Amino acid sequence: MSGLPRRITKETQRLMTEPVPGIQATPDEENGRLFYVVMDGPKDSPYETGTFKLELFLPEDYPMAAPKVRFLTRIYHPNVDNLGRICLDILKDKWSPALQIRTVLLSIQALLSAPNPDDPLNNAVAEVWMENELKAIELAREETRLYACGK
Asked: Which of 37, 44, 73, 148 is exposed most, by the fewest CB atoms within 10 A?
């Protein structure tokens, strides 16, 4: 952790001592700017049975710039593309240095509970979501069973 800005050190310590419910964020042993995240699918969502792996990286200019976050676990979601990139306003134009790693993780968890097909990153999934939401939810459940329920 030495050599990291104080802000990153403090946020990391807080994540370790006060973990976010349903989210585990572990810093890389060699690079304190890289976090391995394990996120439980939110209750009452198509993802609730799954456990998703993500990667969160804090750029050099953090907190002036947003963290880079992506899903490593495949997920059927209109706001997540095939590379795991996430379309979320606070990771783009609505980023503020007042936000923290835990805020970002909670926002991603909330996005799983409330997909936004009106601002998609995966147009094919968004189309299904808008035309037949029940079918989209079933597809999301199925992909969760296939890719996020392993050991």
From this structure: 44
pLDDT band at 150 (very low <50, low <70, confident <90, very high): confident
Report CA-CA distances (Å) from 59 to 8, 64, 77, 140, 142: 11, 9, 26, 31, 34
Q: Show the tokens assigned to 19.
A: 């973990």
Catalytic center residues: 87
Over residues 26-46, the pLDDT tens digits come to: 999 999 999 999 999 999 999
- CB atoms closer than 10 angstroms to residue 5: 14
Apex 58 CA angle, 94 and 71, nearest 5: 80
Cβ neighbourhood burial of 29 (10 Å; 0-12, 13-18, 19+): exposed
The phi and psi torsions of 85 (rounded to 5 degrees) equal: -70, 150
The predicted model scores a pTM of: 0.94
- Tell me which residue has tokens 């590379």: 83
Is there a contact between 27 and 34 (Cβ–Cβ < 8 Å)? yes
